[in-house]
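User: Predict the complex.
Assistant: Input components as received:
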Amino acid sequence: MATNIGVIGTGNIGSFHVRTLSTQVSGAAVTAVFDVDGERAKALADDVGARAHATADGVIVDDEVDAVLIASPGPLHPQQVMACLDVGKPVLCEKPLGVTSAECLAILDAEITGGRQLVQVGFMRRYDPGYLQVKGALDSGQIGEPLMVHCVHRNPTVPPSFQADMAITDSVVHEIDTSRWLLGEEIVAVTVLAGRKSPHARSDDPQLVLFETASGVLVDLESFVNCQYGYDVRCELVGSEGVVNLDGPGLTAITKSAARSTAVPADWRMRFGPAYVVELQEWVDSVTSGVYAGADAWDGYAATAVAEAGLRARAQRTRVEVDLVERPTFYPGPR
Amino acid sequence: MATNIGVIGTGNIGSFHVRTLSTQVSGAAVTAVFDVDGERAKALADDVGARAHATADGVIVDDEVDAVLIASPGPLHPQQVMACLDVGKPVLCEKPLGVTSAECLAILDAEITGGRQLVQVGFMRRYDPGYLQVKGALDSGQIGEPLMVHCVHRNPTVPPSFQADMAITDSVVHEIDTSRWLLGEEIVAVTVLAGRKSPHARSDDPQLVLFETASGVLVDLESFVNCQYGYDVRCELVGSEGVVNLDGPGLTAITKSAARSTAVPADWRMRFGPAYVVELQEWVDSVTSGVYAGADAWDGYAATAVAEAGLRARAQRTRVEVDLVERPTFYPGPR
Amino acid sequence: MATNIGVIGTGNIGSFHVRTLSTQVSGAAVTAVFDVDGERAKALADDVGARAHATADGVIVDDEVDAVLIASPGPLHPQQVMACLDVGKPVLCEKPLGVTSAECLAILDAEITGGRQLVQVGFMRRYDPGYLQVKGALDSGQIGEPLMVHCVHRNPTVPPSFQADMAITDSVVHEIDTSRWLLGEEIVAVTVLAGRKSPHARSDDPQLVLFETASGVLVDLESFVNCQYGYDVRCELVGSEGVVNLDGPGLTAITKSAARSTAVPADWRMRFGPAYVVELQEWVDSVTSGVYAGADAWDGYAATAVAEAGLRARAQRTRVEVDLVERPTFYPGPR
Amino acid sequence: MATNIGVIGTGNIGSFHVRTLSTQVSGAAVTAVFDVDGERAKALADDVGARAHATADGVIVDDEVDAVLIASPGPLHPQQVMACLDVGKPVLCEKPLGVTSAECLAILDAEITGGRQLVQVGFMRRYDPGYLQVKGALDSGQIGEPLMVHCVHRNPTVPPSFQADMAITDSVVHEIDTSRWLLGEEIVAVTVLAGRKSPHARSDDPQLVLFETASGVLVDLESFVNCQYGYDVRCELVGSEGVVNLDGPGLTAITKSAARSTAVPADWRMRFGPAYVVELQEWVDSVTSGVYAGADAWDGYAATAVAEAGLRARAQRTRVEVDLVERPTFYPGPR
């Protein structure tokens, strides 16, 4: 009766998903997993009563897999998503849908050919109660028309393997999606400016990223991957009649040693852990109902296309326009 | 493979639990329900694929029920809990465990005789992230020894059926449990003072309730069931080296019309809904593991005994000492 | 053209007043000072261009003194205030007006006999912007009728010379005045309960003080003079339609090392320094206009009478009723 | 003994200064005023015991005027400041020091020729306790090196007389000064981007203004003069080790009707009124001591030069470099 899930990639985020699906989601069972590190996959599979496959395709074609969650490295996503579409199985793909927009467009074609939505992209912030309140405040009309958005996205540090471009593709991409989703429109241009370089940074960091939307809303984002102090994500949406602010989620304050302090989350897991649980629950429910509410393949394509423009904008330190194909009517567009 | 749950009582809280167990809890299925309103029970049962029984006992003895959740009116709890103990099934009983401490003591005896823990009492605040942070701050030692606690518990309004005593038995009882749990010790005396009476109140309201614990910590609580503006629960624990504050859970603020505002929850469901989900998940997990971390029968007994003292303290407007039996070694005591 | 002020007592608070009057108050000049420590008085007098007298009376009768500020030890206040009344000079007396209510009553008699208001008592919180907002919220009617008040008054530490009674007479006395002033009515009974004793305290500390007002409003106050972390004064006024909170005055927050922190004032000077400036400016203006808006002699008497009841309540750990004389029509009463 | 002040311009801000100097500043007396509206000047002069002059020069050369405060329309500032320098009198000039940088440079020349500092420019935020805390946090080293600054400057509405350029010259100019002062360095380039236009605005509004400083710090500023809801000025300084935030100065919160709300100031007077008092007190003290700590003529010139660049940047929607002359050693530069 449970929906059987196969998970590809059991690293940091993949193993987190496997455990969440197995212990916190109603109606779900992880039945198959794959990872290039076979031992890691085997150990995790044993823990949750799943089978460890020797290949990703093994998971996808497994008869005991109803739907697939892809948490492998980004460059592998398109081929694996396409394989899911080939066998007609719903797939939740961690971002990015594809590293290039061309790869994403191929997925769109395949999904349209199949005739029904099977792809969801893992933009979990859409399930965060705080972001939902921001969207609710805007959609209710109480702050008027959206005019500007100010965002902050800070990570304490990045590992040595972190490449400069990843600030755009791995971090800023979340604000690309939240901006499109909150405002319900496409981003048409990107500019990336360097702030003064942190002594802790190897490449330009922090950076100021500017998005312009189709209707002229200006979104500015401080992207800072070496802020040292914690994982801090904030958003202020400025409307014509008022403003809504998403601050850090401080539940308690400790007053001690001459200061009143609220903890900042240490990492994405502490900040967005609950959002992932909701995302997985709603996705599992969607597999049954066939109705998906999260980011779809078009959203995944648009995010990649804007990130591509962002990479050029960053490299050239100039404003770059986003080049989107005409949206197929199959997809409803940003909402 | 799922744990099959029978639910007794499908009113406000009972139906909330049925839906939560069916849609948000991993490894759980609601297989049987009962309510005095047979039609209501039937409709809900059909929704979630359960069977509606003609009696509460029918649920308890149903072979397809592994564990029972009791959400019936308080006076029925003791008999129903005892019936669960008779058949050796784990039971999560909404508060109160019993209306009188004598009833609770009978349950303790029965559980001890059975030789293993089967009873959990539904004090959901123990699963609230904010309360857990308060407890964490104290247990970590960073605020020193606990000295005082200031609590606020406000409801917007109460229905016409609300009796004056219910402020103690239905509302204050939550702070009885959180005080014992946070401080890890028993409450030894209660005083209830009347504030100036609200024009919206039918009986004394707000009231100031004082608890004294075994080690001398003084807990004061504003109990106000007609505050008009929302459901507002707060807690400040004063330690010898610092203070920890649990404020309302405001994620976002709207600035408009000359003010910056954060919403106050409208009711307990908005405030503690997520805590109930965690409570049910952990309880379902406990049914399998046999290890329960929530409030046990002793906690339920102690809460009722303190509430009894509170009722006398309120009626007589005097300080009343709590009369607890010696704690059986079967129970670990407040923690 | 400036109003010439004589200051009696140039200790901690007295010298603070002398400097404030000399550098931050319009239309004021300090022309005479006295202190038992003659050298200290002389040095301060030289700094601000004043004359140091050999006695307090010398200041009071000095022809170049238009008005007197008394910042000497409390037991000396009544005699010095009476001397000011004898010569018909306005006097701002630091709290307490008198150590006993009998002393205060004698002052009331003398002032009434003189036929015009000359006495103001230095309850500076009445000039704090935050307290004024609390009073404004209540007086505007927007939170309805006042029903309860929750107060916190914490000091980091107290010196070895601190006597247990001083928690009532020096610290709690501020909430006695603010409660009367905010609510516009007298306090009729006091209870003082001991919390668990801080390991840093020599006598019971923290304590929970309860005031009952004429209309039945219940005021609770945590008095904690060894809280370690800072000087923290807060107030929450609960009305029938809403609540107003006076929190600490945090202007900025620093986010660092995994926490977002706001500084707590280190002492009364940091917290209420600006209020003292306003108090002195308005008092100096009153000397010219003859119209006083601050705490008057009746307020000073009432504060002492309630503090006397508080001392008995503390000693006997019982509720003590406040015994006020009938208010002379000369005084408008609390407002 | 008091310092005699002459005030030129008794409109909105000028009359505010006259009253502040007369009633809240120690050691100051307003002895002379001028305004083009002679009746307004006369009425105000009578109120505070000053003489109303027929011309601005009449004030400047008045023997009973020790120092001059200029609050006339901006275009008149340079000639009036020069007239003060001619007679060697200290002058506090409201911003701008001059409408063009050429005018400002002429003032610098004249002051240098005179050989001592006489000019201060009225950037009052340097006296705001909140901004001082931000500067203190940076200067203390606790947040590391400054990397980015995020600013918000909102006005509820603007009058019909408001010209589009005034967003830069009258509003943004405050952040020009605070940025230079906080960071201790010059602004070298300005960019002005249009957000989506508010339906309440006649010209582009809100706008996003970007400053680049000599060391590469990027300052972004939302300038929004039609935000409807209040006067809201905020600042977040991002350092390499932490962040400091200047939020609105909320002292109290009212919880009512399902929301907890803090008032936003209605206008600059409510927000920065206390800062003006400190500014005037310190300036009056400086007239006596000869040591000025506020913004000097160089700061006034730099602010105008950056604003000029801002006007071009706004008109051309492009990045414009700021063209500053070499700083005379007479001036210490931004600090």
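Chain B touches chain A at residues 2, 22-28, 129-130, 133-134, 137, 142-143, 241-247, 249, 251-257, 263, 274, 281, 285 (CB under 8 Å).
Let me know if you want any component modeled separately.
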